[in-house]
Design goal:
- The protein is mainly α.
- The chain has one domain (9-133, 202-314).
- It is 65% helix and 4% strand.
- The chain contains 13 helices and 4 strands.
- β3 (240-241) and β4 form a beta hairpin.
- α6 crosses α11 (202-224), α6 packs across α12 and α9 packs parallel to α12 (252-268).
- The longest helix is centred in the N-terminal third of the chain and has 27 residues, at 30-56.
- The radius of gyration is 20 Å and the shape is globular.
C-alpha cells in the first residue's frame, strides 16, 4: 500500500507569502507594511500546520478543518475581550492604522483570528517533535477540592487590575486559567490539572514554550509593520526588545496556557470536541443547541464590530 499523502503544499505557500511580506516591508511597499502583521501570522500558521502534517499526517487545517475555523472565530472573541480589558488598563495603543474603515476593521478581525491558531499550532509542532519535559512528574491526587481556590484566585486576578490597573495589571494574563480550569476539569474538557493527576506536566511545559516562541514572533513582526501597537506599561517600560519591554516577555508563557484553557472551555459548547488529534471528534456530553452556538458566533461578530468602534475612539493614536 502507498503511504497516505501528506498534503503539505500550504506550507510552501506560507513560506512564499512570508518571504514576499518581509521583502515588501523592508522595501517600503505601503500596503505590505500596513498588512505585514496579518501576512506574517497567516504565513506562519500555514507553515506550522504543514510541519505538523508532514511529521504526523494529521493537522488542524488538513484533517480538522472545521475545528480550525471554530478556533479562528473563538480567537476573534478572545482577543477582542482583551481589547475590552485594555480600555481600562491602557497598556497598549495602536498607530499607523489605516484611515479607511473598510481596511481597518476587517484587518482587526483577520489579525485577531490568528491568536489562538498561532499559539496552538506552535504547541502542536512541539508535541509532534517530542518535546516532553515534565512528562514523568509525580502525580497529584484526583480531587475537586482546589476548585474554589482556583476560582477565588482567578476572580481576584481579574478584578484587582480593573480596580488598580497601574499596580496589578500583570495579573490579568493568568486570570482565565484559574477561572476556567475548574470548569474544564469538572465537565470533561481537556484539563491541565487532569494531565497532572496522571503525572504528565509536559502539555503545560509545551504551552509555556509555545507562548515564549510566539511572543518573540509577535513582537518582531509588529516591529516590521507600519500598523502596529505600542506599549504603555507602568514601571516596566525599559529595557526593550523590539517594542516590548523585556519584562513583558514573561507574560507570553502564561498567556499561552490561557489560550489552551479558554478553547478547552469553548469545546464544551461542542459536546467536548476539542482541537487536538485525539479529541477533535470525541463527544463527551451533549453539545449546546445549534441556535445557541449560532447565536454565539453572530454575537462574536457583533461584539467585534462594537470593539472596533471602541478601539477607534480610545486606542488609536495619531489621526482620530
Amino acid at each position: 500500500m502507498h503511504p497516505p499523502k501528506k498534503h503539505v503544499w500550504h506550507g510552501f505557500l506560507g513560506l512564499a507569502m512570508f518571504g514576499l511580506g518581509v521583502w515588501g516591508s523592508v522595501a517600503g511597499v505601503e500596503w505590505v507594511r500596513i498588512w505585514f502583521y496579518q501576512i506574517a501570522w497567516w504565513s506562519y500558521i500555514l507553515v506550522a500546520d504543514a510541519v505538523v502534517q508532514a511529521k504526523a499526517g494529521n493537522s488542524l487545517l488538513v484533517n480538522r478543518g472545521a475545528t480550525f475555523w471554530v478556533l479562528c472565530l473563538a480567537s476573534i472573541f478572545f482577543w477582542f475581550g482583551w481589547e475590552l480589558v485594555n480600555l481600562r488598563l491602557h497598556n497598549w495603543y495602536y498607530q499607523g492604522i489605516p484611515h479607511e474603515i473598510w481596511m481597518r476593521w476587517p484587518g482587526a478581525f483577520i489579525a485577531y483570528a490568528t491568536v489562538l491558531p498561532g499559539i496552538l499550532e506552535t504547541y502542536e509542532v512541539l508535541t509532534v517533535y517530542g518535546v516532553s519535559w515534565g512528562k514523568n512528574t509525580r502525580p497529584i491526587r484526583s480531587t475537586s477540592v482546589w476548585y474554589s481556590y482556583f476560582l477565588t484566585a482567578g476572580i481576584l486576578m481579574l478584578v484587582l487590575p480593573l480596580v488598580w490597573p497601574n499596580l496589578f495589571f500583570p495579573l490579568v494574563w493568568g486570570a482565565l486559567v484559574f477561572i476556567l480550569e475548574p470548569l474544564n476539569h469538572r465537565y470533561g474538557a481537556k484539563s491541565l490539572m487532569r494531565h497532572w493527576e496522571r503525572g504528565d506536566l509536559s502539555p503545560f511545559v509545551r504551552l509555556l514554550l509555545a507562548g515564549l516562541i510566539c511572543g518573540v514572533f509577535w513582537e518582531s513582526w509588529n516591529w516590521l509593520a507600519e500598523a502596529r501597537w505600542v506599549y504603555n506599561i507602568p514601571y516596566l517600560s525599559e529595557p526593550k526588545i523590539f517594542a516590548m519591554p523585556l519584562a513583558g516577555y514573561g507574560g507570553f508563557p502564561p498567556f499561552a496556557v490561557e489560550c489552551y484553557v479558554f478553547f478547552a472551555s469553548v469545546s464544551l459548547l461542542r459536546g467536548g470536541r476539542g482541537w487536538e488529534a485525539d479529541d477533535f471528534d470525541q463527544q463527551v456530553r451533549k453539545p449546546a443547541p445549534l441556535w445557541l452556538r449560532a447565536g454565539l458566533g453572530l454575537g462574536t461578530i457583533a461584539f467585534g464590530l462594537w470593539m472596533c468602534h471602541m478601539i477607534d475612539l480610545y486606542l488609536i493614536k495619531g489621526w482620530l
